[in-house]
Specification:
Layout (H helix, E strand, L loop, with lengths): L2 E7 L3 E8 L5 E8 L5 E2 L1 H12 L8 E6 L5 E3 L9 E2 L7 H10 L3 H8 L8 H11 L1 H6 L2 E3 L1 H9 L7 E2 L1 H4 L5 E2 L4 E2 L1 H8 L7 E2 L12 E4 L2 E4 L2 E7 L15 H14 L6 E3 L10 E4 L2
Parallel strand pairs: 1-5, 5-15, 9-12
Antiparallel strand pairs: 1-2, 2-3, 4-7, 6-8, 10-11, 13-14, 15-17, 16-17
Helix pairs in contact: 1-6, 2-4, 4-8
């Protein structure tokens, strides 16, 4: 029996479901709550991840992480949070959103730049809020990740570069959906300084041929494949055709099951047309 693990880190909790990759039978499922509020210490998510997924990881041949989109995880040069993460539903950056749209030439120009007209949920607006309201934290910010990326990197072996997919990137406000690339200049203009961004895994990319080790509260697991699944707002339009305890979890489980059958390399596939800017990326051994 080949088992795969789907992990969904939502606003309220982390859920983990261990599934038989061949027939979709749910073998075991666990969950752990997240703190309430619209700003959360990212370390609370990794603790919930250890509680929910830790006991299941040693049994999994592949793991996929799906997570909430848009949230700002600002890290210093050591990889520590400079402040609690601002979630997608934190609206304190509404004024910043209007300011950036105006700076970028108005709604049509903004949509042309990044594929959307900015609202408070977009990560780039939170960067501008940070610049204006917490300049010391902004000065210390070296890297910006999304909640989904933060957990994927936490699962990976130390030294694994942070990675994301085009679906999550499209919700930041500094990714060009037309050119299919980051716009680091937009992130820098919002925050007032340049920041490092995660690598965007491309379709069929062979980027990590060396072994991958996943870690949990129960030690290291060598040879488990880690897969980055769709962000939260895209799950309803991702039709996986697999069991669906929820749309989010079924997408994560499908991603992990697919990873089991992949060659030993980093890769990604697109589950929807390129115009919808949706992809799944994986790390595999």
């Amino acid at each position: 029996m080949t088992l795969v693990l789907g992990i969904d880190s939502s606003t309220q909790s982390t859920k983990a479901v261990l599934v038989d990759a061949d027939d979709g039978t749910v073998v075991e499922q666990r969950s752990a709550p997240h703190p309430q509020g619209t700003e959360v210490d990212p370390r609370a998510w990794t603790e919930a991840l250890a509680q929910a997924a830790g006991p299941l990881l040693p049994r999994a041949s592949a793991v996929a992480v799906a997570g909430q989109q848009h949230g700002m995880v600002a890290l210093d040069e050591r990889g520590d949070p400079v402040r609690p993460a601002l979630l997608w539903n934190d609206t304190r950056s509404a004024t910043s959103a209007r300011q950036l749209v105006e700076e970028w030439g108005g709604p049509p120009a903004c949509a042309e730049l990044v594929g959307s007209v900015l609202v408070a949920s977009f990560t780039v607006t939170k960067l501008r809020w940070l610049r204006d309201h917490e300049p010391e934290a902004a000065r210390r910010t070296h890297r910006v990740l999304l909640p989904h990326d933060h957990l994927s990197q936490h699962l990976a072996a130390p030294g694994t570069p942070a990675f994301t997919d085009r679906g999550d990137a499209s919700g930041t406000g500094y990714f060009s959906t037309v050119d299919d690339r980051w716009r680091p200049d937009l992130a820098a203009a919002a925050l007032g300084r340049e920041v490092a961004l995660p690598r965007i895994a491309a379709p069929g990319e062979a980027g990590r041929p060396e072994p991958i080790t996943l870690r949990s509260a129960f030690g290291s697991i060598v040879g488990c494949r880690s897969w980055s699944s769709e962000p939260g707002s895209m799950r309803p339009i991702a039709s996986s055709g697999v069991i669906s305890p929820s749309a989010a979890m079924s997408t994560a489980i499908f991603s992990a099951a697919f990873a089991v059958r992949l060659p030993e390399r980093v890769c990604s596939i697109h589950s929807l047309p390129r115009s919808m800017v949706n992809s799944r990326s994986c790390m595999s051994r």
